[in-house]
Fold rRNA methyltransferase.
Amino acid sequence: MTQSSVGPGEFYQVVGVGPHSKPWPTDNHFDLELLEQGDRRNVLDKYRYWKVEAIVADLDTKRHDLQIAIENWQHDLNIGSIVRTANAFNVSAVHIVGKRDWNRRGAMVTDRYLTVHHHATVEEFKTWCDENELPIIGIDNLPISKSLESADLPKKCVMLFGQEGAGMSEEGVAVCYVVLAISQYGSTRSMNASAAGAIAMYAWAMQHLNPVNHPKN
């Protein structure tokens, strides 16, 4: 197998590996086209040359109890980045609340490996969460917010994020079990929505994903 090489663009490398050396593996989870042409996807080495559906099936065996929801009223560019981070933490599902169409560019096709639900309204989303016994944890810098760093996060929950700039809607805030804020120490009032998503998911993982019990695969 060939190593990755510098490709188009000044700063970016072509990720992945080239065509697989023969004889090819014959297990059903391998993709013949990828074996022949190489696998340039941004996936773990374990999943090189695997079919998408085979990767999803393997991830499904170890999904975490955390779910992520994003309000989508303004086609926020950050939604894709939050979805990509959600994939990195192997959350159970992602919820898009509001407009069905969302900006997938930042997701870098990681939404293929996740279950994505759509809810037209906050009320519809709240009903789904109630039926599935999922407390909604809002993440936003508001006067009512409590500290994320000192919060005892439920293992089974859904974190709700608002729009870049505008933050969570009033309707979104109203359905939250609690709203948490990330402590900041500079002059800016708020941080990038996708950065906040990554920090919040990491905070949950530090409480519930003990490395001793969840070794790398």
Remarks:
- The longest strand covers residues 66-72.
- Confidence is low (pLDDT under 50) at residues 1-11, 213-217.
